[in-house]
Amino acid sequence: MRFETFVALRYLRGKRKNRFISLISLISVAGVSVGVIALIVVLGVMTGFQIALRDTIIGNRAHLMILNADGWTLENYQDAIEEIEAVVPEIQASGPFMQVETLLQNSSGRRTGQVTTYAFLIGVEPELESEVTELAANLTKEDGRSFGAGALPGKKEVVLGYQLAHSLGVHIGDKISVFTPSHGKKKPMPWGAKQAQQLLLTVSGISHAKMSEFDALFGWVNIPTAMLLSGKEGPDGIHSRIEDPFKAEEFARRIERKLGYSAVTWHENQLAFFEALRQEKFMMFIILVFIVLVAAFNITSTLIMMVMEKQRDIGILRTIGVSSTSILRLFMIEGLIIGLAGTAAGVILGMLLARYLNPIAEFIAPIFGIDLFNSQIYYFDQIPVEVVPRDVLIITVASVILSFLSTLYPAWSASRLDPVDALRYE
């Protein structure tokens, strides 16, 4: 064991006249631990939410959307599917899609007043869509009836998102009016435009995708109904499901290079959303690092008081030939030991707290009479937590660096101490 490390450990273990410094040392260790625990748990929860939402997006959106680069529709989409799957054999399922901007109105007659709302209607091929997205799996039960793939939209039928149906006040079997820009027919539009066409559709299913964007903005119709609403002669493009969603970027570029189509991945479709999550996680990391920074200031104050208490010892060490560099190292090592102890305790306790966060939340909730995690709001049965080793490593390194930086000034002050001044009054 090096001389500096031996002395630093003796200073930490030894009995001091000033017990207050020992208390401050323990507070410093606890402060670093609390900061590390907070960082691990909060970042673990944010990562868990990010992964859960990502999985929801992957399930409810196609992994690849292939569009014609020139913007015109794919009238013969069967040939296009065969062509795309020949280039990317990893594709598991494909189907055509269309997107139509509409206004929807409750025409069931069971609700007073006419409720109108904006929505996107997605045209799909029902038989193929159940293999491409989780639309069929998301169909809910209503009035005791179970709706499977048979409830996907047929002729002049529509499946509505859960929140969209709620805002319209409609249920399965009700009628809604769909308004789109006119393609030859002239009817007054409810929002004041000059021309529109209206189509009466029957609600055949309610989709609960457990994500606000899908549940509040989207409905689904079959391709012939979407063509009737849009006035187009074919689908907008092809969307596909692949075996590994995280290879979507590679396959998209392959399709663009070999076939000349424009390909968009599920991640590119939600790029702003994922970027917002990434920035939020980064900002939360920066904010919580300040907890560790406060603890690092405690380490600085502890070492300063320790230097003041150990002036006589420092003077004796310098007198017997210990260099100022060794004194510098001694107090840096002492501060690092405090920081490392706090970091190690924080990592262990943080990992345990993250692992048992849901049981702890369930235990605390009845005591305070509050619901710490409302599943009706977040659509998850429990708090999603995912502790990533890379995050733990970054937290550990940041904590150790801050602890090291906090030792520099006190250690430098100790190394500059004149042994004559230190022993003058001894």
Label this structure with key terms:
single chain, 426 residues, alpha+beta, 2 domains, six-stranded mixed β-barrel, 9 strands, 15% strand, elongated
Lay out the secondary structure.
Blueprint: H1 3-13, H2 19-60, E1 64-67, H3 77-87, E2 91-106, E3 116-124, H4 126-132, H5 135-138, E4 157-161, H6 162-168, E5 175-180, E6 197-207, H7 212-217, E7 218-222, H8 223-230, E8 237-242, H9 248-259, E9 262-265, H10 266-269, H11 271-309, H12 311-319, H13 324-355, H14 357-368, H15 375-378, H16 389-415, H17 419-423
Parallel strand pairs: 3-7, 4-6
Antiparallel strand pairs: 1-8, 1-9, 2-3, 2-5, 2-8, 4-7, 5-6
Helix pairs in contact: 1-13, 2-11, 2-13, 2-16, 11-13, 11-16, 13-16
Shape: elongated
| Number of separate helices | 17
Largest sheet: 6 strands, mixed, barrel
Radius of gyration: 32 Å
**How is the largest sheet built, in terms of strand order?**
2-3-7-4-6-5
Mean pLDDT, as a whole number?
Answer: 80
Query: Could you name the ranges where pLDDT drops below 50 across 5 or more consecutive residues?
Result: 143-150, 184-195
Series of H and E elements: HHEHEEHHEHEEHEHEHEHHHHHHHH
**Main structural class:** alpha+beta
Count all strands and give the number. Answer: 9
Concise structural overview:
The chain folds into 2 domains: 3-56 and 274-423, no CATH class; 64-268, no CATH class. Helices cover 56% and strands 15% of the residues. It is built from 17 helices and 9 strands.
